[in-house]
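Many introductory courses stop at the sequence. We go one step further.
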Amino acid sequence: MAYIHTIAKLQNYRCCYCDNLMIRHKQTDGQSTPRDALTKDHVEPRAYGGPTQFDNIVAACCMCNNMRGEMDAVAFFNLLQKRFKRDQTLRARWHKITPQEFSTFKLQCIHVHERQLRGLAKTYVEHAIHHMIFTHRRRHQLRRA
């Protein structure tokens, strides 16, 4: 866990997504983690086989880390920056947003993630069809020879 502090120091203790200052927080039983607490975030999520290595980890605030979930890191960053651009006051009050704003943005993140998965599925299906056509042609050519 010591390397997360090295990564955070490289990032000047700023969240890689919202660019807000993060605090170091010692977790105690029965106490919730503050929204601006320092956490480690896997760029390629562990759910998709992302390793826990120095080059796959960034420092993110607890709120951004929880909100991102399994969503692509770049897509989440772009979505957040677009939201900050639309609402100029949002960056300053990011860690103090209402539960309703939080749930609205979380739903938007889930929709973007679902679109990404559909896009990946479409790509995988296209690759599978091209492979099937190629192997079918190759078998047909071998039978003729």
